Amino acid sequence: MFSLAVGTWRALSEPKRAFPIALCCGTMALLEFRFGQSVTGLVSAIGLCSAFVGIAPFAWRALFPGSIVTKPERLVIYLGVAIACVFGFSKVLPMAFGVKHTMLGYPSSMLVSIALFLVGGWGLGRDVDMELRLVEERARAERLEREAENAQLLALRNHLDPHFLFNTLNAIAEWCRQDGEVAERAVLQLSALLRSMLEGVKSGEWSLARELGLAKDLFELYLVRDPEMFALEWSVEDVADIQVPALLLLSLAENAVKHGPARGVRGPLLVRVSRDSRMVAITIENPGSYNGPRPGSDGIPTLQKRLYVTYGEDASFSIGEVGNARTRATLRLPVSTK
């Protein structure tokens, strides 16, 4: 109950509520003072306003959790609190100091004060409850977004083509008979790649340098299978301090090979990363025309969703055809450092 009271008063102290409350209470105190020219009347008005602010919204929230009226007898209690506060400060307090007539002490004024007490407490208490529920729902929605994203990561969807994995394992089996050294190197690279992916799933976020290193491991594993498949051009600035969602680039790196060099389209595969004080730009460019998203593929929508969950509107992604039958994917991310 104490925490409920403190939470209510803290919410009422916010400017969006404190200013209109102060305006209404100040007007009431001024009118009372102008009417009776009595310090006792002014104190009575200030006391009534203080009782309203301190008791009415808290009483509403305590009696009606979630602002849902389920027990009529609690309305009677709420009405009793209003009557006691208004009568005590409008009538009893002035009479205790020998003041018989105050503006707030007239029956009609007391009825208005009781109505304001009831409605004001209901309005403010309900407003505080709705705001807290909104904050909780937003936090819950963000948590569900994160959980959905983690579920996708745990499934490793769109991060490693199963056909690539199977083909690599078959190639390693073949190399074991033909070239044991190449087979050993391929096993070690595949093991390091899978280990890094699992670390990324667990961490959720890591440095951009590690993310780029994972993409490079993927490219090099392709080149173990076919050293002539493509030439990797790597131009990366120092990004060790920049944090990004784990496994963000892996599907782009995989698609850059799968939809270009793996289909027999030869040419250099370019990875370029540049940064300034606010943004980092990541470009992956591969040979081969861009034919738009494949039907049923959710790789790009998943990437865009992860960007929005992490960065909101601050990040951007674009992909399209450039130059002579080449595809370029570009990510622009706000610089988030550790």
Structure explained in plain terms:
The protein has 338 residues and is of the alpha+beta class. It has two domains: 144 residues, no CATH class; 180 residues, 2-Layer Sandwich (Heat Shock Protein 90). 63% of the residues lie in helices and 13% in strands. The protein is rod-shaped. The two termini are 40 Å apart.
CATH C-level class of the largest domain: Alpha Beta
Secondary-structure arrangement, i.e. CATH architecture of the largest domain = 2-Layer Sandwich
Strands in their spatial order, largest beta sheet: 2-4-5-7-6
Radius of gyration: 34 Å
Which superfamily, in CATH terms, is the homologous superfamily of the largest domain?
Histidine kinase-like ATPase, C-terminal domain
Q: Would you list the SSEs in sequence order as H and E?
A: HHHHHHHEHEEHEEHEE
How many domains make up the 3D coordinates? Answer: 2
Q: What is the terminal separation in angstroms?
A: 40 Å
Features:
single chain; 338 residues; Heat Shock Protein 90; 2 domains
What's the gist of this structure?
The chain is an alpha+beta fold. Helices cover 63% and strands 13% of the residues.
Secondary structure layout plus pairing:
Blueprint: H1 2-12, H2 15-36, H3 39-63, H4 72-96, H5 107-154, H6 162-178, H7 180-203, E1 205-207, H8 208-225, E2 231-236, E3 243-245, H9 250-258, E4 268-275, E5 279-287, H10 299-311, E6 316-322, E7 326-334
Parallel strand pairs: 2-4
Antiparallel strand pairs: 1-3, 4-5, 5-7, 6-7
Helix pairs in contact: 1-3, 2-3, 3-4, 3-5, 4-5, 6-7, 7-8, 8-9
